[in-house]
Amino acid sequence: MSVSVHENRKSRASSGSINIYLFHKSSYADSVLTHLNLLRQQRLFTDVLLHAGNRTFPCHRAVLAACSRYFEAMFSGGLKESQDSEVNFDNSIHPEVLELLLDYAYSSRVIINEENAESLLEAGDMLEFQDIRDACAEFLEKNLHPTNCLGMLLLSDAHQCTKLYELSWRMCLSNFQTIRKNEDFLQLPQDMVVQLLSSEELETEDERLVYESAMNWISYDLKKRYCYLPELLQTVRLALLPAIYLMENVAMEELITKQRKSKEIVEEAIRCKLKILQNDGVVTSLCARPRKTGHALFLLGGQTFMCDKLYLVDQKAKEIIPKADIPSPRKEFSACAIGCKVYITGGRGSENGVSKDVWVYDTLHEEWSKAAPMLVARFGHGSAELKHCLYVVGGHTAATGCLPASPSVSLKQVEQYDPTTNKWTMVAPLREGVSNAAVVSAKLKLFAFGGTSVSHDKLPKVQCYDQCENRWTVPATCPQPWRYTAAAVLGNQIFIMGGDTEFSACSAYKFNSETYQWTKVGDVTAKRMSCHAVASGNKLYVVGGYFGIQRCKTLDCYDPTLDVWNSITTVPYSLIPTAFVSTWKHLPS
Amino acid sequence: MSVSVHETRKSRSSTGSMNISVFHKASHPDCVLAHLNTLRKHCMFTDVTLWAGDRAFPCHRAVLAASSRYFEAMFSHGLRESRDDTVNFQDNLHPEVLELLLDFAYSSRIVINEENAESLLEAGDMLQFHDVRDAAAEFLEKNLSPSNCLGMMVLSDAHQCRRLYEFSCRMSLVHFETVRQSEDFNSLSRDTLLDLISRDELETEDERVVFEAILQWVKHDLEQRKVHLPLLLRNVRLALLPSDCLKKAVSGEALLMADECTKLIIDEAFRCKTKILLNDGVVTSPFARPRKAGHTLLILGGQTFMCDKIYQVDHKAKEIIPKADLPSPRKEFSASAIGCKVYVTGGRGSENGVSKDVWVYDTVHEEWSKAAPMLIARFGHGSAELENCLYVVGGHTSLAGIFPASPSVSLKQVEKYDPGDNKWTMVAPMRDGVSNAAVVSAKLKLFVFGGTSIHRDMVSKVQCFDPSDNRWTIKAECPQPWRYTAAAVLGSQIFIMGGDTEYTAASAYRFDCETNQWTRIGDMTAKRMSCHAVASGNKLYVVGGYFGTQRCKTLDCYDPTSDTWNCITSVPYSLIPTAFVSTWKHLPA
User: Fold this and answer.
1) Where would I find the Kelch repeats (chain B)?
2) Is A4 contained in some domain?
């Protein structure tokens, strides 16, 4: 076929209609790559030798450059290697690993196993085979466990594997007692140790373990690490240590006594500890703030809906243990925790009178006291802690209340209690008065979900209070009209479940308090109206409630990472829970 | 990551359970190919330059070798080009075409249009890009037309595109009268021309068209081509030329008389023609064999089921014209054609007596004569021509027959008539006696489909007679039990349609007599029991039949290439077809 013949065909064809056919052979690229691999195996047209260890791999520059930016840059720049016909990795890459990478480059397939996954991830990142690096990270994610999670944390941090890093980090927090004994722990960089030990989510009930881990890390390389001691000491919740341990072991530690700043930190912690022991006001110092697993869960309830007793949930033994009687039994009250104290507000007593009373139970000293009464007598209201103050929201009142209100109509009034001054103050009222709403605080704001409105309907609104502006807004609508629901907070996520709704009473949702977005989560295991929920550690706990004539008999736990509910224990037959709170936990002094 | 670290990981992992993941990135080959294309466009890592015309194309040897065996061989095995860094196609390849091929090699995609398809086919074949060659062939198949089919035939023959060759050859045959006038015709090779003119399927009713075409071809390059004249003439159906045309050839065409071989051929053809004109025995010379388009379709029928007239189908005018009366009207007879004669055998006359008579109608001389009577009087039998002899198969007889047989029971007997000596001979009987069966000959064998058995059931067997063995075998089962069906033959394919069957009487099937395989084809436009079919040209024709009380009023045509049925014409109201034959056609002498 000559050039002139083709020109004739062009001129002839042009007189006809335009007829075009795009031919694409989807298997063509696979075929070319397979052929290139055969050429490589036969050492045909290869123009570069890669050396690793004592092995040599002949390759095609163009193919390597097409697969990896590392090689493209190496061969195309003014670098020495761009001219050389050999590249030597010496001992920085194992020949078995390089072989796997090259097999992948020429076949698009690679076998990843426990022996090679970490090395492949490193080499894949180094040579910019990002697909390999990501595939190995995924493999390691599926094979993550407490004995290797610390190593994976270091590996993923070094190679920008975000998801593997997140999963490893979470597993390290959950398995602190295991990883602290790991040799890798002692080799962690300083910033990572600080981040780990200071985390709220670090799962330990014995703060002594955290102190000892910090001291071990310092001692491992005392010469270089001694200067970091003050920073590490601040990660330990020193005021939560047993008093004797704090006085004798920590205060007397030679490494601490010889360093002025560390000594000051310990002395501050001792003063804080004494304040706790003497019950002298509210202790809000960071060194006394328990980690999430240091929370104690308390149920309030009784044999009827009249609440007369306080119970402790023993998570280890999976038991519910009576702790104290309530001085003044009541129903339709609200309960909230600040620090290690439980505040019980309002409700109705044995003669159905609406109460202004506020009782306070000190979980540390196991004793009751009375706080200043509320400004408005309430029942069916909600309450939450915000910046160490107690807020009481909505509910019903009676004609005898101090402020004017219609009998049995949902209140708009919101009042604030400051424990340090033992005083109540009115703050901005709700946009819409509600009772039987779910009230929580998250990210320095109060949220009220649903409830019963002044016209006795179920309200489908989310109402939000900003303390800085002293103002309520309505930033979102609930997925459905709601009342008698339960809510609890994990980070910026508010979980709402159960309740009286047009949909199933076992449905549960997640609300992002920053984006105001709703997400459905897994259903509660039973239908629960008037149930109660708290968050502790990285989990949610729900108890109580009923549906029809059936009482819900279990205490259930929800794990957000798995989106599953499990039963923790059975509620005693004689107990009807009417409130559920989480307080700071302290070890016996 | 060092070698020792990897070794440590291997030994550590081995203690655990074996856990393997095969990572496969399906898009990796496409990514690599796209990157290679980018490298090519930037002239990076290129190690060979292809030249075509005045354009240069830098490429990667490895990629070209992986894409094409032509380049793999060129660059390997010590050839000169294996060391040169340039390859020059000069004017053998148009640069636009080479560019398209290289784009395909590096992207798996190519745009094919009317301007480039032929050149791509040629270059794709030359450089062994067979996918491109095949894709271009497919494009050309879809754009085949009478004005280009001859050129495509030449092109596809040169480049082993078998399917395009078949399609273009078929189109050239169907449109011979058009293609012989094209410029390409004179450029055909001798073998290609022979292939065309030797085929029965060449569609012309006037053999002078073929005769003049080959003279034209020879004269186009007289010195080189006159040596081929004898062979070409042997493939023209010279005896079908009008007598005056033959005489003119003898006296007027100097070219034909100049060569002794050619003269002999003309003389032989003339003697054959004379024999036909004098009606001196059966003429079976290839010179007298009509092309399929030269067949005459004849319908036998009458105003009732008693047949008393022969009609001719005029294709051009789409009419059915009476031609002659039958000397002895009859029903339940059978009719077959040998050459230009129609043989009417057996049946029952006006007094229901079963007949042995054989009447012969000569379509050239338009006259009846009587042949020797059959050995057995029959009705409801089948007949077919095989190797210029007439075979009569099965049917019913009566006690008056020469051979013993039960009254009205289906016959096994088969007898053969040789027109050469005007004698009947018994041949091997069928395995199962049948009547009302479809009987045809194909590939030198007789085939009998279904029929009524001696138990009066419908038969579902295909029985086959091989005259060289004088033996019947059962080749296959019919798709369903059958009788009163029609059958016709195209090449090795036997088409069977209609009839009395458990399924629809409109169904039609194709049987491959070489592989014994059945295939369902498109249904007829009407249900037809006792219909009749013939093949002519590349098409099937069916006429007659009834369903319930409804007569089928049309003559329909089936085109196997499009698997569709169409109506040709209506059968006159006064005509009930009872037989349908196809004879050789001769022009008026």
Assistant:
1) 296-340, 341-388, 389-444, 446-492, 493-538, 539-585
2) no
